[in-house]
Amino acid sequence: MWAMIVKEFRQLRRDRRTLAMMIVLPILMLVVFGYAASFDVKSIPVRVIGPAAERLAPALPDPFEVESVDPSAGRSDAETALRDGEVPVVFLTSDTGVTVLLDGSQLFIATSTRGAITALAERAPQRVSVALEVLFNPGLETSAIMVPGLAAMILLFVGTIITSLGVVRERQAGTLEQLAVMPLSPTDVFVGKIAPYFVVAALDMTVVIVAGMWLFDVPFRGSVLAFALGALLFLFVTLGLGVLISSVSENQGQAIQLALLLLLPQIMLSGLIFPLSSMPPGVRWIGYLLPLTYFVEIARGIMVRGAPMSALWPSYLYLAVIGSVVFGLATLRFRRSLAPAERHGRRRPQPALEGASR
Amino acid sequence: MSWGASDLTVRFGAHLALAGVSLEALEGRVTGVVGGDGAGKTTLLRCLVGAIRPDGGEVRRPDPHRIGYLSSSSGTYPDLTVEENLDFAATTYGVPPEEARRRMAEHLERTGLAQARDRLAGDLSGGMRQKLGVIRAMVHRPDLLVLDEPTTGVDPVSRADLWWLVARAAAEGAAVVLATAYLDEAERASWLLALDEGRILAEGTPEQIASGVPGTIHSASARPGGPAAARSWRRGARWRVWTPPGAQSVATDGAEVVPDLHDAVTIAALARELGGASTGGEAA
Lengths: 358, 284
Prior knowledge:
CATH topology of the largest domain in chain B: Rossmann fold
CATH superfamily of the largest domain in chain B: P-loop containing nucleotide triphosphate hydrolases
Strand order of the largest sheet of chain B: 5-6-7-3-8-9
Largest sheet of chain A: 5 strands, mixed
CATH architecture of the largest domain in chain B: 3-Layer(aba) Sandwich
Distance between the termini of chain B: 23 Å
Oligomer: heterodimer
Number of helices of chain B: 8
Structural class of chain B: alpha/beta
Radius of gyration of chain A: 25 Å
CATH class of the largest domain in chain B: Alpha Beta
Order of helices and strands of chain B: EEEHEEHHHEHEHEEHEEEH
Number of strands of chain A: 5
Largest sheet of chain B: 6 strands, mixed
Helix content of chain A: 55-70%
Strand order of the largest sheet of chain A: 2-1-3-4-5
Strand content of chain A: 5-15%
Number of helices of chain A: 13
């Protein structure tokens, strides 16, 4: 048995990446769960509008934080602001009372607001009526926000894990070198490699959304085209990530490890499960770097709130930028792993003397 | 048309994998590259097809469309069937479907793979998989066919099939370069290059290499003592003792033997080890 233990330790020592993962992953989990995993909403950004706005705004207690006050705005402005995701809660004042409009796609904020409003109404003067209205997801159904999130997760899983495995398999089987000397350009191989995953991911996502709408009555209020464009951009990022992972992994085990290392923070910190607004700023900024954050924003915005593309353009822009960076890097790495210059992972310092002269 | 390499040098870090190796691959000829493990066979072949770039020297190779290559790691997809593997190669090399089907059928039939055409390559025996690899490499009638140890670990029957394919490719006009660790098999090549530690030990036709052995060889029932011990090796149940020109001959209990390819390559390696010049049909 001793020999077995020693052998195992020796093998573990050689596999530095697994060893590093065993140390890094628990720390990562600790940080993510410890700081980010919270359903408690500590601050709720609100907009106060209507004739009595200026009187009400300073009187609002915690957790409400008045973001802007506009006495001249009316109900339709409030609905637009909520639909476009500018703010999750709007206090619409009138001479007789207050109507609190909630964005139902922000489940935890909506729930917290409801609690806070109930407490507030008890203390409010008798003559002021307080009404609560939840827009987009009046029943505050979890499925309505989870199905768009699930669609995002499918793109992430298929794009990142499955793609990275597919490319690494080629390296492991020793067929990558064969491809390198075949009359295929790196682009041929690259596109050929990811096209099937692209199709599968797109189909997969469609099935989930249609099933969600059919089984759970999840709404799809916005434009299908705008959604498709967002999905396309996000897929662009995840496929690039998959190829990038595969280009730095020797085998499928390593690829899965790395993919998990990239997926876990995305799932935890993207606002998919835990609301971004309840995370401390020290962790929240990580969430704002992750591509999933933006696609969740797009998916929920379009499906649940019916937000137009013009309101979501920063998310589209971010996905396009990060997609170009990741995809560019992936293509570069992929070219290198197919290029004859590469030996032992290093580039040749001198130009080749060989020619293809006949 | 002649392809090949001149004065190739390849370094892997501090290790010199090839040192000034040249090889000429002539149309219709099978050029064998022999040598033990680590001799530099694979490196030479990979340079030839463009999988690695040499540190020095020149490679003459046709356009990638006209190269066929079987790497030492089989190069077939285990999760595709025999037919699907060949389809992929034929399409990639732009072989017209009709011709691809005809060639495939003929080669599969001749090498006993016809019944296995719908089986996954991963389920094939080692020999069958190698045959598939060679058929795949020559599906487009390449001008230069490079095969890295296609017969290693293959039974004699499959080996005969493999050699049929190799001869067929050469007859069709391909310049075939084939690496092997087996000297008995290397005799089937029309031109040989024996490598040892990245250098050419001997070069020529198998007959030239065998007849170019300097000095004499005697058979012996036991290993001789003295300095001759370093110049003797076991062949089957008996020993062979080499006496280089000018050295004092050692009396053995056996007769002088006419060297074959095996003896010639062994002596070339011995000569290098003992500090002598390399030998061969055409001095390298």
